[in-house]
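Journal club prep — side note

Before the paper discussion, L.F. wants everyone to see what a predicted structure for a comparable chain looks like in token form. Sequence:
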Amino acid sequence: MSITIFVFIIIIFLLVLIHKITDKNNLNNDISKRFILFEEEDKIFFFEKNQSELNYCENFGLLIYEYYYDRKVPQSWGTNIGDYIQSLAALQYLPKNCKPYLIDRDEVQFYNGTKVKLIMASWNTLLHGNKYISPQIEPILISYHLNKPDKLPSIYVENKKKFAPIGCGDFKTREQFISYVINAYFTSCLTTTLDIDYAVDKGERTDEIIFIDYKFGKFPKADKFIYSLKAYNFSKITYTYHHFDIKLTLIERFQLSKKLLDKYARAKLVISTRLHGALPSLACNTPVILVNWKYDFRRYPGLYELLNTFGINSKGKFEIKVNIDDKGFVYNPKKYLEYAKKLKEHLKNISDINFKPNEIK
């Protein structure tokens, strides 16, 4: 090999290395303005940049999601960023500069650390580690979604009765709990309160149109309707997704979630097939449409009615329910605000010693 070729190969190698380092730095620098994140043992720190010290509050937990469904091997399809968006919604209510204990959603019965308050606003299914809640956890059961099974084991039912009333993130979960004589009510989703940390002023909005897990060609009727929105230029679209490699570190998962929330909050329009893309956009007053080609009878009831929607409704019929003003721009329904207000009012007192975790007035 000649010296010239060798030098050329070295130069290419260095350029690729510099590109990778730059990409990593861009990810680290592109998180929310408010926080610096770093890890220590089993905790993650959310450190406000303008503060010199952390608030070492040891009595709070924060849900994370490791997806170790059989306690040995993580499921294969990846990390669902929507889960971490829900945790960022919960984080808004914890004391500032707090270092919460990290508790895996699917391992809550095994937690045996310091006693903590834990906002359990999340998607749930019954697995090996969440049939009951550890006595070391004071659960705040709001915006709770139970995906399955239909038949609940007695250990789960009796444990949930201890913490009733339970605030449910959808009508189906509420109905299922009530059928087991568990006092329950509808709270909507905690992500409808993400405006606390992520809403921006009108002048900070961009002209960006974002498609979340949606591409032209999959649902022709939706494509036709979207193109009919003449007030928008669809020649340049930003495509984002909520499923990522399971190998992402915890820091990367939170950073990516923050990055996406910042984009949604500044966008001109969001088209989403993901509830946890649509609801945060709704919270930040970003015009948003939820597109679905199959009605989800477990997740949609109660939440579907809060959004602009395009697709198959609960009766199996194709339906368009989108607010459009006289200039052709999409605007959001306001019904969600009554639920968001109650959630905010309730959780603002989370640090009070007399805080009643599961009673929203």
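L.F.'s comment for the group: The first helix runs from residue 3 to 29. Keep this in mind when we get to the figures.
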